[in-house]
Specification:
The structure is a homotetramer.
Chain A (H helix, E strand, L loop, with lengths): L24 E7 L4 H11 L7 E7 L4 E7 L2 H4 L2 H5 L5 E7 L14 E5 L2 E8 L5 H10 L11 H7 L7 H9 L7 E5 L4 E5 L8 E5 L3 E5 L3 H6 L2 E5 L5 E5 L2 E5 L9 E2 L1 H6 L5 E2 L2 E2 H15 L6 E4 L5 H11 L7 E3 L17 H6 E3 L1 H4 L3 E6 L6 H12 L4 E6 L21 H5 L2 H8 L3 E4 L2 H8 L6 E2 L1 H4 L10 H10 L1
Parallel strand pairs in A: 14-23, 17-20, 20-21, 21-22
Antiparallel strand pairs in A: 1-4, 1-10, 2-3, 2-4, 5-6, 6-7, 7-8, 8-12, 9-10, 9-11, 12-13, 15-16, 18-19
């Protein structure tokens, strides 16, 4: 998509992601709690790993909607005094990475409009693949967009019909968009949640003390606020919650789900239930599978903190090889940072992690990684281990090579930046990373570890088989992203 | 109008205006200077007295428009590093008081949209009287508004026609709005300026070093940047400036002008030419007229700094009575301030002005004021003078009693708050203010001092004869403003 | 003195003084008011013209002293929430320019120490001429200084004797320092005020509602807070105020006073009584004298706002020549500012003042100035008047040529930067400024206008006769200041 | 100590320590690198765990010392632009917790003075036990202290002798102080490092690229900047580094070392060498010992992240019981935080850690902890585990019960707050924590795991045998700390 308005103040992407992909966002909603904004704050806090670029909360009190959003972490955007200015019993919230639209405050969500004396707010996880075409058609008819987010299209599609029934306007709008959406909406007196028919991204429903409802991208948000996980929002379902209770609509024909398997591998928090499975246990099973497929002779197995922790634990458990935490993480690595200058080369990698030299000296080491995207960070860490005395370094990755970009809401680097797409063979990748040996978990092994059937997943980043073809060629998508 | 979105962060109106009316805004534009944003900064700086609530600059470089705006003074919103991020040779700028719409950042101007891959920015001085009705109709058709400003209506009226010719879209939009507008617009490659057919508010055209053009609400902005004043934008004229030069359109039938006489009396800077006249000399003539109409026996004549300075000078000149500066202004009175508590009553009036007691003790004093709106500040100052020993206090005002609110862009208090409307007789007003005697300049005297014919002016705040009837009753307008 | 610690954060001197000299500081104290800090805030606010670089308040509650100080204006350093954290019924305050010591926060006053379980705070206006020698001797014995201020010497001289009687320690310390000091001090339960035997700088005593006391550099501070002016602190007097009331000490032999006449000419606010005289009326008398000494043929007389206002009024009154306000001041000129670039030369002078061209065109103009120090600003303004059409420009200055630097607390430029010292003859100065003619008031005329005998004044900046010779040669003093 | 000046702005202790003791500080120094300040920034960054309340850097360029310090983390106090203002090839730095003195900026270190035209800066880890008595004596003689830090005494003791030889002044001062000190000092042209004769706190010396020297509290700082660890500063040694190289002085008679064993157990980073031993391996050996002493029947062993990680790994390795990471840490837990209100009780414990319920349900769990001080956090976590389904919860602690406060620089809670001192028996502690069983590692086992002889350690927090008796009774010390 990548429209650049040039409006507003661009924010530097200082977030440190170690070359890992970044998710599309996290959403949260609450209905029927007298401290709805505060609860949403905690919900977003638990979902912070899904988006660290901006955060926002919109809250309704039966008459109007108030909102606060800003660039930065949830705890940076919201302080006690802000929350006090957000009264009401209904709220939605959002944390964001910019998978479409620029990294500017005007693109932060929830997206709030005041239209014909009513308020509407929307928060969205996922990517719409036909947003650009819909936008152009709307602009020709006179619609003026405020942001560069694909999500704004939904509101504009609804606008001419809002003087009639809200839910008809919503169904009408959703019937025109294609792609991935886990959406929560807020009006002055109701909360709405919906998930696209293929259910690419997670979205769960919970109960709060018997008289309130909560909705969240991941169940770890329910744990934090003491809510009870009930079930996932169904593929294609629209849930509307107001004073008469919860109503469920299923206006669209059923299709096969396409859950994003990368949520299991990397994105979701290990303490969440995602697509019905516990992530921690699933990742340990990925480690078990790895140990069955690949056992070079090593003295110890370890993760790079904190990426492959659970797969590494599973690997050690299955293989009987000792598990160590051989690189120590500096807990104070924040987001603003002073750069070492040329005089002090090679600091970068050591600022975050420091190897325990007496532990590693002369050892044969197996690193278990969850995934490799660009590979540059891994390469630096491998070199750092080598300089600290490791004799052999092997690596096992808990998924197959990631070869194709994602149009459904994950900010993979373009195809050109995907290490596996660029280097081709596993041997070449191992050479690039400086490893004695490298093994990727097989597709079958990965799916088997989830405990779910393969046809429930979107595996397109491994296979290139896209369940919904985006209108622009993927290469073009990549190119635009590189140009950013 | 007074729609309150509830969107955005409300800003406290801390601006100290001494109970004086506040103007609707100041606008500025430049075409053809390589430091367009910097020039606009200085232009707005010279126009700061027309609006101290927010400031903004939009600049075009032939490809796109960049913008910065914020709450506060021009010098607070813009620093050196901001200006550097606003490259381009065309710019428009705006300083604002909130006569319609809330005092929030989303209501700051210029108003910028990105529509169908083009950028449009607009800055507006004046009030549209049918904005609310137009907005409702547009919303019914699906338009989503971003602000509560009347000015936004113009862009939405243009939007469906922008894929055709820009100037047709503009003429079509302007043909639908009624009220006062001195507007400057910016596209990626041209600057547009237009003034409503009755030309309520000033708007002047200047030349910059023979190859650039400037437009400003007042000519004092030209003086600061070293530009040459050419002429006023004509009533109803649309001026378009692009690489082929300046073109003038006059698409609307001519009507009699209705210049706001209050610009001469109070608003405009004394060093400006407004409606073709020099303001300083005009105000001295108002003082001459006052001296002819009213001469109580006094020892000295003085203004309250800095409101009636020039009329007071004129009065002293005509009457031969000594001119004094008997109240000393604290130059450090800013906008944030610590309040004296109950224990320290009566500080308020002294914080800003301190009478020179040895000068005033036992004297008969004539205060010359430009105008009286609410009267509370004047009353406090009169009492303060009395406490410092003045024996008699008389007052002469350089315009008639202000009895009617203004729907064309001046933020007079509602009718209920207008002292002259509430108290009725001049004697009652004098009693309220605590004066020995009070004289208002006659309507004829005021108009004669301007040197222009009476039928060129809007005199409705004195006479109640409105040249364009606003759709809502004026009483309702007042009520809404009070409710704020 | 000019010791540069290099400790702390230097603050850019952005204060705009139009080339005028800057005073040494203002001090304020209150005893016996339950909102002592708030009262001190207002007192400092009234004294802001005496120092705009830093501000501070120390407050005592009978047990301890709390303090807040910072760089910037009083209204910038203090907000409502700060004042709330400063409880107590006794307070002292200070506003500062850096005449000695660097412009850093560690040099802001009041200077507060915690010594042997007691607190002592001090605020000082004036310069000590033997501070450097005293400091060296103290350091040799082991004293460690915290700032580069001459004022700190007083506390260190007191420290070894503080375990005995406070007032003996103070008299002992003051008997060792030489130079100008108007000082207020605070302990946990008393307020002390003292003035050097020659009484260079003003210091007045006032009564607050019959049960409280106030002390201030100028009486305008009393007016603001509604206090009654009683008398000046006497030369060499020490006033101690505690629960047993006010006590006065006169431990030093009497000498002839040396009041700084520049307080009357320029520094003090026109609404203050200084050295027993009203400043406004005194300045008008300076204008009368000027008119008697010098009457070139002109059409109008005017000040440059706001420097020579009252002398100009006096001149016009005496001469009968019309008084005009021919240059309009932009009230929004603040302290941070965007610079015009080379492309926009000559903005500088116009940003602050704009001449009223139709008033000045073809006229013979007399400018009345209070004083001329460096002359560069005046020269620019004269040129600006000329460019706006003035036919002849004459100038009358309300004091003699300023030819010698001041070691007693006024930050005159060094001798090399004093226009009159550099150019020599009045004719040369007139040429430098671009004037048709120039007249300085005679020394006799100046003194006569004050209504006080000449031998009560320090006239050393005009005559070079220094009542206390500073240990370093004045040339060295100048040199150091230039090196800054 | 706990002198409260009441000077300056107190800072809320928002640092989250989970009830763990806080160290006295970290110090760092560099000599002979052209980016000394930047290197010191990175050194302090690696030592951040030793003090999170304030950070400071002083840098010398051969002529003068410049400094910056502030409250907060190293990365908050320093930004790129600050470092640029700190040129020079020598520097010292400090991170701090307030074990003596208030938590205010005036107590941040390095402590810098400008004395008799020379600069001296000092940074100190440890506590002096006779600081109060020395201070009183100095004040009686006229010294004025700037802070409430014990460290300031050293400078004042040196001051009267500084006009003679620096090293004599230092030896003289150190001969008078008693207690724990690992100190680095800076003059305009040299760096000094010294450690008290008992060497309570660590201090190491390193080499930088063959021509520079570095000193740090822990060797992990050397790893980050690529320096080579050479040796520890010896007990009682003074190291002076200047242009003629490194010189070592040993002016004090040798005594037996008293290394703080708690550095091994908890404080030091696992990747540091402390007192000659690698901390990671030492902690694993503590786990081995624990497994030999205590084996309840459990299904899994886990730490509370991230306190007992390495001892837990050692325990699992020795016992063969599976190691799990059963509580997931929220990586975004920062230092400012919105409090859950009463309506949302019990959030507190879950904000930081969330148990993986499917992993723990029905299991018998062994928690391995490094140490228990107050026990409240542990109790909450145990309850949280129980609520999430753990069937049995046992705990093993890698040191004996902590029963006595520390006067040498560790901010243990007062004796009344030490869980083991208050509850007495291990059974009572287990009941308080809600455990099925609890085991503390034996004193012998702990010492044996270090691999060093017992008489090299200070074990007073376990045994109550203090190697240097503090002048105030320990109970009084405790009482004062509670009163804070």
């Amino acid at each position: 998509m990548g429209i650049d308005h040039g409006v507003g103040k661009a924010v530097k992407k200082a977030v440190q992601t170690d070359g890992k992909p970044r998710d599309a966002c996290g959403v949260f909603a609450v209905y029927g709690h007298e401290e709805a904004a505060r609860l949403t704050f905690f919900g977003l806090f638990a979902l912070q790993h899904r988006g660290q670029e901006s955060a926002g909360i919109a809250v309704a009190d039966g008459c109007r909607i108030r909102e606060r959003k800003g660039m930065g972490l949830v705890s940076e955007v919201f302080q006690e005094e802000n929350l006090k200015k957000l009264p009401g019993t209904m709220a939605i919230g959002h944390v964001r990475y910019s998978t479409t639209g620029s990294s500017v405050i005007s693109n932060a969500q929830p997206f709030l409009v005041h239209h014909a004396d009513e308020y509407y707010a929307l928060a969205h996880n996922g990517n719409l693949v036909n947003a650009q075409a819909l936008r152009s058609a709307l602009e020709d008819k006179g619609s003026i967009f405020q942001s560069t987010m694909d999500s704004e299209v939904i509101i504009h599609l609804m606008a001419p019909h809002l003087k009639d029934r809200f839910e008809d306007a919503l169904v009408n709008a959703l019937s025109q968009v294609r792609g991935a959406y886990s959406v929560v909406m807020l009006t002055k007196d109701k909360v709405i949640a919906t998930r696209d028919p293929r259910a690419f991204r997670p979205l769960s429903l919970g109960r709060l003390d018997h008289h309130g409802w909560v909705i969240a991208s991941e169940t770890c948000a329910f744990d934090l606020i003491g809510a009870q996980y009930l079930r996932d929002i169904e593929p294609g379902e629209i849930v509307m919650i107001d004073e008469s209770g919860l109503r469920s609509l299923n206006p669209f024909p059923a299709v096969k789900p396409c859950h994003c398997i990368f949520e299991m591998i990397y994105f979701a928090r290990p303490d969440s239930q995602v697509f019905g499975e516990n992530v921690y246990l699933c990742r340990k099973r990925l480690g078990h599978r790895l140990a069955k497929e690949f056992q070079p002779g090593v003295d110890l197995v370890m993760p790079f903190p904190d990426s492959g922790n659970y797969a590494a634990l599973g690997y050690a458990e299955e293989s009987g090889i000792p598990f160590e935490m051989g690189m120590i993480r500096n807990h104070y690595v924040g987001r603003t940072f002073i750069q070492p200058t040329q005089i002090m080369r090679d600091f970068g990698v050591r600022v975050k992690l420091n190897p325990v030299r007496p532990l590693l000296r002369g050892k044969r080491v197996l690193i278990v990684e969850d995934s490799i995207i660009r590979g540059t960070t891994s390469r630096n860490r491998v070199r750092n281990l080598r300089e600290n005395g490791a004799k052999e370094i092997h690596m096992a990755v808990s998924c197959p090579p990631t070869r194709f970009p994602c149009p459904y809401g994950i900010d993979f680097s373009s195809k050109g930046e995907l290490l596996a797409a660029r280097e081709g063979s596993v041997d070449a990748i191992a050479r690039f990373l400086g490893l004695e040996s490298l093994h990727y978990l097989s597709l079958e092994g990965m799916v088997a570890a989830t405990g779910m059937p393969a046809d429930q997943f979107c595996l397109s980043c491994y296979t290139g088989n896209y369940p919904i073809v985006p209108p622009e060629s993927l290469e073009k998508l990549c190119f635009e992203k590189q140009g950013k």
